[in-house]
Structures are given as C-alpha cells and as structure tokens.
Design a protein that fits this description.
Strand content of chain B: under 5%
Strand content of chain A: 5-15%
Largest sheet of chain B: 2 strands, antiparallel
Helix content of chain B: 55-70%
Strand order of the largest sheet of chain B: 1-2
Number of helices of chain B: 17
Structural class of chain B: mainly alpha
Oligomer: heterodimer
Number of strands of chain B: 2
Strand order of the largest sheet of chain A: 1-4-3-2
Chain lengths: ~450, ~375
C-alpha cells in the first residue's frame, strides 16, 4: 500500500458519470482514526474473551475433556492439539490480540489471531456461536485492511492518516449484516405471532430488578419480539444516518445491556456495543479525545491496491448472499437447521431434544443401545440432540469407533424427539434410516422428518 | 444518506416506527387467548420445591439413617434373629428414603463429595468380607479411611444380606466371638448417618443453607445468580436421574448396551437385598415429588404448573408417563437380578417406560421451561 499526500485543493468540478461518482465516493479519503479505535477494541475484546475462557475452564471443557469432536463437513482434519496444546493456542491468541490492540504489526497480528481463533472454533461444531463467526470475519478483515494506520504503534510518529472510504464501509457492512439478517430471521410466524421463544425465556425473568413481573407477561414478549425485529432490521440504517446515529447508538447500548442482563449471552452484547462505534464519524476518536486534526498537509492517505478493493467487493457480496442460502433448502430452517449456521439467525429457537442411538450388526441384526454420554460431553450431547447434521455425524462416530475396535461397521439408527418453541415434542429424524451410511449432501437431507410447525 | 432528513424528521420517523411496532405487537397479541395472564411464579415454585420436597426428603433420609444406625448398634450389642431382621428392615427403609433423593443430586450432595461414599453401587464384596473377618483394629478412623466401595449402603448390605446363605448362617457370622462383624456394621452405620446428616444439614441451615440459596435464586443467592440457573439445576437433575436409571441401572444389567446383549445380573443395584426394583421406584417417586411439588401429602406450586402453562400436552404426557413407568417397574416379578435373565420382557418394558419419562423431561418439560440449553447457545456464550 502506498502512502500518498492528500491534495490540498479539491480538483476542478467536472461532469462525471454515476460509476465514476461511486468510485470517487468509495475512494474518497476518510480519517483512519475510527478504524484505529475499532482495531483496538477488536484486539482488546479478543484478549478479554481469551482470559474469560481460560478462567471459566472453557478451554479444558471444550478441548481436553471431549474424546470425540464434531468436525465441520470437509474439515475433519481440523482437530484440537493433544494434551495442553490448546492452552498454548489460546496464549498465542491473547498475545496476537494484545498486539492487534496496540497496533504492533497490525495486519500480521490480525492474521495470526484470525487463523488461531478460527482454528479453535472449527475443531468442534458443538462450539459454534454466531459471535465467534463474527470475530473470525472481523479478524480476517483486520488482516486484509489497513486498520493499523491510526492509534497504533505501527503509525507512531507518522501524523494523521486517511484511508479510502470503502475500507470504513466494508467494516460497517460487516457489522450491519449481523443486525439486518438477524432481523430478517425474525420475520417468522413464531417470533412475530407467537412471541416465541422470548415468551419462554421471559417467563424465567421474574428476578429482573423492578421489571420482573412485567417481563413475565405474555404481552411483554410480544412487544419485545416486534421491537427486536424492528431494531435489528433498521438499526444499521439509523446508525449510518447522521441525524439518527446518536439515538440509534443509545438504543444499541440499551438493547444490548437489557439482553445481557436477561439472557446468558456472554460477551456478545459487549462486542456489539463496542464495535458499532465504527458507525460514528470517522474522526470520533480525535474529537472525543481532543486529538490533532487530520486535515493537515502532513496527512497521509494510505491507498490499498486495486486487487484488495476487488477482494473487498467479493467479500461484501458474499456476506450479503451467503446468509440467504437457507432459502435454497426446502423445509423449515428452524427445524432442519440446514443453512442455519453462518446466517445470523440469533435467538430464534428454543429447542430441547432427546436422542437415543442403536447400533446393530448388519449381518446378525443383533443390536445394542449406545450410551451417548460414554462418547460425548453433556454439552456436546445437548447440542447434538437437536441438530440434524450433528446427529448424522454422531452416527458416523459410533460406526467408526466400532470399526476401529475390529467390529463390522454397524447400522446406526437414531430415535430423536425434539420440542421447538414450546410445541409438543416431535420426531426429528427417520428412525429407520442408517445414519452411519448417510453421506453429506448439498441439498435437503431426506432423513430429516417434516417440521411440526 | 446523512443529510436527507432533518433531526425533527428523523425523530418523527422514529416515533412513528415505535407506534407502528406497538400497534403491530398489540394486534399480534390479540390473537393470543392468554396474553395478560403471567405464567406461574417460578420463584414460588423454587421455594416450594425446596421447602416442601427437597428439605423434608433429606430430613426423612437423615431420620431413617439414624434408625439404621440404632438398629445396627442393637445388632452389634445382641445379635439375634429379631435384631438381624430389624437391622435389615431398617436398612431397606433407610435405603429407600435415600434413593428418593437421587432425583435431586446437586448442591451439597455433589459439593460435599459424599454421594459416592453413601450410595456407591459397585461395592467390593470380597474386600468387605475380608475386612469383616480380619483381626486388624477396627474403629471409626479405620472406616473413615476405607474407599467408597467399602462404605455406605452397599457395604452394610453386604454384611446384612447374602442370598447364597440362609439366615442362620448370616446370624452365626454376627454371633462369632469378638463381635467384629457387628462392630463393622455399626461403624458403617454411624459413618453413613454422619454423611447423610451432613448433606441434610447443608440443605437445611447455616452456614451453607443451600435450600435458601436455591429458593432465592436470582434474588441475592450466592449460588444461583439467576432464577433460571436455579430452575436449570432442578430440571437437569430430574433428567439426569432418569438417565442414570435407563443407562446404568437397567441397560447394563439387561446387557443391551453391548452386542450381543448378554445379561449382567451382578450389575443390578442392591444385588444382595433384592430391593433393586424398590430403588428405582424410589427414584421415580423422587422425580414425581419434585415435578408435582408434593411430599407426604403436602403440595405447593409445582413445576408441573409452569409446564402446563407453556405446553399443556407436554405436562399431560408427564402425568401419564410417570405412573406408567412406576407400574412397569412394579410389574417386574421377583428380584431384578433374576428378572434380567428370566423375565427380560418385563424389564425391557420398564426400561422403555422410563425412557419415555426421560424423553418428556428432556423435551417437553425442558423445552417448555427453556431450561435445557437455556436458549440456543449459538446465540452467545
């Protein structure tokens, strides 16, 4: 990336076409300060997340205790390091996060953090969280984009800096799609016309200070459902609109603080409160902390290469399109969960399941009941019991284990019953199908039974 | 984008949006027949389950353990047909009272690490018998140093019962010079009573006062920061209790966890006293007591009410499946150790019936209460 001087005078006004105007807007220099603050917050939150995981014993629980892991399709080679290896991964992750926060070799630090963080969370599907996915994406962006050009050790002593506007907008887009697609997911009959699953969760909110009795009322669940959907769908647009930005951000803070208190959603609310600051004026850190103006002759404009802009366009397009892939599958995505992950569907389902597996010798027909807890941790079992792809994966684990013991590969069937958003339980998968011989499919899995909705 | 609206227009827009949302949610809620009735108060449910079921059950267990200790002391002091029979009855009564608490194995029973020492179901009969016939000094300290597989209910059972011997032979062992067997049994009885007392005390008063910690979950509890966590503990304990019966106490003796299925009668609970069926029925009674919030004829606001408010068919299934499971267990004739070999169909039927209870708990009940995984944990950590 070349650093070029910002022209002191605007170019003479000439008539230009739409494409050129868009290009000019995208490449217009903007203060890099807010992206510097964003980078700092991203790195700092990563360090906090690592420390939190470490102190909670989550590294031990997620990587040391389990004997089996649910690999993502096509990524079965991604396994946790043996023994205490993952502690070293997390230690390195904390160092990379801290390095990113202070802006020391920012892009390299971000790339290392991205690889380590993504690796850790690809080891087991059971650990999937939407905000982990978001952090991986943002670290990926930080590895690609010039976020270390302000408020960083990398830029120490170099004076103010600008970056092309598209850099800022790509980061904003990444945050915005989380809200927007979160809202799209809420345009669902259960959410809007059944107030589910909020109604179930708020019934347990009687201990909320002062408001507990009100929160337990079904009417409150309806109001919060509609408000939540409207908030998610609209807040990115209110955040980019200067006139409404302050109100919108205040609402972001209120919304996330309330949800943090109501539900056990860990760091997600704080991540969003911190990172949505990127929607404010690009110079907000300078104005807030009375830093020097960026409108100086010494201001440098970091101009990323064109190929990076092309990658940014592909990235943006993929983030707009990929969350919609669930619509390519027939059936109810809340039930089948095909295309559910990586699509920003948050807080839409309350599922509880019971999964019982039977392994039978294909020749003799002799069968045995598989004790799930002998192979999985309670957490893995709970996650598996409601997610069809993990049920199929577990059937493969059972069969693979039998083969490793020198036994013939068994047929593995599953009797799985699940409740969805307060409905009576229903069978999730065909109990006659040998799931251990079912391959991964691009399309709808035929062994998933119809939704009770 | 940033200059299309004036601040006033933006505020009007936000206000209009708010009104629209309020209107839409009211319209949506109007289709709901039950939009203003709050669900049953979970704080009261927790308080009632704690004060009316869990604590009284532990008090029962402690009282019965005390009676067992007394009976074993009497057997040590004067071994006779009557004192042996009385000790056996006391063991069965205490055992049953304790097994009811298997429906809520959390809190002190876990924290004090006493559960294994009280109800370990893999007693080492050979070691217990060897110690009973040894000559090394035997006192409370010696018992205190014994492993979990030589203490508690199973160890006392090993001393009091043996289907391979008649009562006269058993009595003769207690009447042998030195009273060692009786002394050993009495020491084990005192050790067991002390442990159950410790659990009951931890639930029932300071300094731990666990009952109070659970009852005020989310309202100043040092253990449960949220009401939801207290509910999770109770419901997950119910599910775990059913799972243990299915996977450990029935599947293993039936041998259906292996291919080919080979019965393993030695793996039943309480194999010498032949109260394995009663053990399981007692746990089901415990699940029943917690779910319906009733004990010894006294009832309060129950988990059942909260489930019924959210998923009435689910509650109905629990009401149906629990008695059926108990009936299926009681329908097993004779000792479980022989039934898993000779009358397998009846045991398999009971296994299936309890599976249905577990399914209802893990799905209908947990789903209705939002306690299984809280909510989809892909939403946060």
């Amino acid at each position: 990336m070349a650093a070029v001087a910002v022209p002191e005078t605007a170019p003479p006004h000439v008539e230009v076409g739409l494409a050129q105007r868009i290009e000019a807007r995208l490449w217009a220099p903007v203060d890099a300060a807010s992206l510097g603050a964003f980078r700092f917050l991203l790195g700092a939150l990563l360090v906090v997340a690592v420390v939190r995981h470490w102190l909670k014993g989550a590294i031990f629980d997620a990587f040391v205790v389990p004997t089996h892991f649910f690999a993502y399709d096509g990524l079965s080679f991604v396994r946790p390091l043996p023994g205490s290896g993952m502690y070293f991964v997390y230690a390195a992750l904390a160092i990379a996060g801290a390095s990113l926060a202070i802006g020391f070799r920012s892009r390299t630090s971000a790339a290392i953090a991205c690889v380590l963080f993504t690796y850790a969370h690809l080891c087991d599907t059971a650990n999937y969280l939407n905000h982990y996915y978001l952090l991986s994406l943002l670290l990926g962006l930080a590895a690609l984009l010039p976020l270390g050009t302000a408020l960083s050790i990398d830029a120490r002593g170099r004076g103010p800096c600008t970056v092309p506007a598209w850099v800022l907008w790509l980061v904003r887009l990444q945050i915005g799609v989380v809200y927007f697609y979160g809202g799209v997911g809420k345009l669902d009959s259960d959410w809007l016309f059944g107030a589910m699953p909020l109604r179930t969760w708020l019934a347990a909110a009687g201990d909320f200070p002062l408001l507990g009795p009100i929160l337990r009322l079904p009417m409150t669940a309806y109001a919060m459902s509609w408000l939540g959907a409207a908030f998610d769908l609209s807040v990115p647009f209110f955040l980019v609109t200067k006139r409404t930005r302050s109100f919108a951000y205040a609402f972001v803070v209120f919304f996330h603080v309330v949800t943090a208190r109501l539900f056990q959603i860990g760091m997600f609310p704080w991540v969003m409160i911190a990172l949505t600051l990127v929607f404010f004026d690009p110079s907000w850190p300078r104005t807030t902390f009375r830093g020097p103006s960026w409108h100086t002759p010494e201001t440098r404009n970091v101009a990323p290469p064109r190929w990076l802009f092309a990658i940014a366009l592909v990235w943006a397009l993929s983030q707009l399109v990929y969350p919609l892939r669930s619509h390519l599958y027939s059936g109810d995505v809340l039930w089948t969960e095909e295309g559910y992950r990586f699509s920003w569907r948050v807080m839409l389902i309350e599922k509880a399941g019971s999964a019982e597996f039977e392994a039978s010798d294909p020749k003799t027909g002799a069968s045995r009941i598989v004790r799930t807890r002998a192979l999985l941790t309670p957490f893995q079992e709970k996650m598996m019991a409601t997610q069809p792809d993990m049920i199929r994966a577990f059937a493969h684990m059972i069969a693979d284990d039998a083969e490793r013991r020198g036994e013939p590969r068994p047929r593995v069937t599953a009797d799985v019953v699940v409740t969805l958003n307060g409905r009576p339980k229903a069978r999730l998968v065909d109990p006659t199908v040998d799931l251990a011989s079912e391959p991964w499919r691009l399309g709808r899995a035929p062994w998933i039974l119809p939704s009770p909705r | 984008v940033t200059t299309y609206f004036t601040r006033r227009e933006a505020l009007f827009g936000l206000a209009a949006l708010g009104i629209g949302i309020a209107g839409a949610s009211v319209v949506a809620a109007c289709k709901d027949d039950d939009k203003t009735t709050p669900p049953p108060d979970r704080a009261k449910i927790l308080a009632d389950v704690t004060s009316l079921v869990i604590v009284p059950t532990y008090v029962d267990a402690a009282n019965q353990a005390k009676s067992l200790e007394t009976a074993l002391g009497a057997l040590r002091d004067f071994a006779s047909v009557d004192s042996l029979a009385h000790a056996r009855d006391a063991w069965k009564t205490a055992r049953r009272a304790w097994k009811v608490t298997d429906a809520f194995v959390f809190g002190p029973a876990d924290d004090l690490s006493v559960t294994g020492g009280i109800i370990d179901d893999a007693a080492d009969f050979a070691k217990i018998e060897a110690l009973a016939q040894d000559t090394a000094p035997l006192d409370a300290n010696a018992v205190n140093r014994l492993g979990a597989n030589m203490r508690g209910f199973p160890a006392i059972e090993a001393l009091l019962f043996d289907p391979a011997k008649d009562d006269a032979a058993m009595l003769a062992a207690f009447q042998a010079p030195g009273d060692r067997r009786g002394t050993f049994a009495a020491l084990l009885g005192a050790d067991l009573r002390a442990k159950i007392d410790a659990v009951a005390a931890a639930w029932n008063g300071p300094p731990i006062d666990y009952a109070n910690q659970l009852a005020k979950a989310g309202r100043g509890s040092a253990v449960y920061a949220a009401e939801r966590q207290g509910f999770d503990a109770v419901v997950n304990a119910l599910i775990a209790a059913a799972e243990v019966i299915i996977s450990i106490h029935l599947a293993k003796p039936l041998g259906i966890d292996k291919t080919p299925a080979v019965p393993a009668p030695e793996l039943v609970e309480s194999p010498r006293s032949d109260v394995s069926v009663d053990d399981i029925v007692a746990v089901l009674d415990g699940i029943d007591a917690v779910y319906f919030g009733r004990h010894a004829g006294v009832g309060g606001l129950a988990i059942s009410a909260a489930v019924a408010a959210a998923n009435a068919p689910g509650d109905a299934k629990m009401r149906d499946s629990l008695p059926k499971a108990k009936d299926a267990m009681r329908a097993i004739s004779g000792p479980l150790r022989t039934a898993v070999v000779d009358r397998r169909d009846s045991v398999v039927a009971a296994h299936d019936a309890i599976r249905e209870v577990k399914r209802c708990l893990a799905t209908d009940v947990a789903g209705a209460l939002g306690t299984s995984v809280g909510f989809n944990v892909t939403d946060g950590d």
